[in-house]
Specification:
This protein has about 160 residues and is α/β, with parallel strands linked by helices. The chain is built from five helices and eight strands, in the order βαββββαβββααα. The mean pLDDT is about 95.
Length: about 160
């Protein structure tokens, strides 16, 4: 078994190359790798993109044009830890741009239907505080939000 971790395969219906370029544009430490095309023996149309290898934020992926049989759902999501509100705002806006959908509690779907959790690092500290009142107030605030607002979470946590 390789010691380089795992490669996540994302199944698309004809939009694998577009998706790979989109994710590379959103995240730092990202690049496009090999692009494989269907040939005469394949199930797709010869010459069309079959797979695109890419790296997003240092994570390895392959985008596969597999057809319409499967689609994404919230059972699998990618969580983005954010150092501050600027990062939350950046990833939130980039990922819902051009057809994505905001969701509750920091969740969203991008224009390809992939689910993401855009989570400030501070959230985990707030909702796991040993003081149950503080943690509860922060949790209640989070549950009322779409995009997470660190200042509002801090304010709820403090009880003000």
């Amino acid at each position: 078994m390789t010691t380089d971790g795992f490669t996540t395969c994302l199944w698309f219906d004809g939009r694998a190359e577009e998706a790979a370029h989109f994710y590379v544009s959103v995240f730092k430490n990202s690049s496009i790798g090999r692009i494989a095309r269907y040939n005469e023996a394949g199930r797709g149309t010869a010459g069309d993109v079959m797979t695109v290898e890419f790296t997003a934020n240092g994570q390895k992926f392959v985008a596969l044009n597999g057809g319409p049989q499967f689609s994404f759902n919230e059972a699998i999501s990618f969580q983005i830890g954010c150092a501050d509100q600027a990062e939350v705002d950046h990833y939130w806006s980039k990922l819902i741009d051009n057809g994505g959908e905001p969701g509750p509690c920091g969740w969203l779907k991008d224009k390809f239907g992939v689910s993401w959790q855009v989570v400030p690092d501070r959230l985990i500290e707030l909702v796991t505080d040993p003081d149950p009142q503080k943690a509860g107030r922060a949790t209640e605030a989070m549950l009322s939000m779409g995009k997470l607002d660190i200042a509002a979470l801090e304010k709820a946590y403090a009880g003000s």
